[in-house]
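Notes from the 1:1 (GR / supervisor)

We went over the backlog. Supervisor wanted to see one worked example end to end before approving the batch request, so GR pasted a single chain during the call. The sequence is below; no edits were made to it. Supervisor asked that the structure be written out right there so they could see what the output format looks like.
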Amino acid sequence: MKKFVLVQIGFEQPIPEMMGEWEAWFQSITEFTIENVGLGPALEVTADGIRELPYDRSAVTGYTVIEVESREKAVEIAQACPFITGVGVYEVRGHQS
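Structure output shown during the call:
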């Protein structure tokens, strides 16, 4: 089995129907899920200083860590997500504690 991080991108003010779609998706992947995390507005820290990042359709709004047999399965799960803008699919590599 391999671990993947599904990074949810995009924010819109949620309505009950949208929240229901998200809850249904989370429930549909519970057998693969290690962790679900929602993220709020962010700051970017660089050598030039600190700035607020926009909380809009380009924002990273959460991530889900899953464990599945293949990248293809991770993509299948991401495609079923009720995303706003998109979902990044990243394989977890390297040292894990």
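Supervisor's comment: The first strand starts at residue 2 and ends at 9.
Batch request approved.
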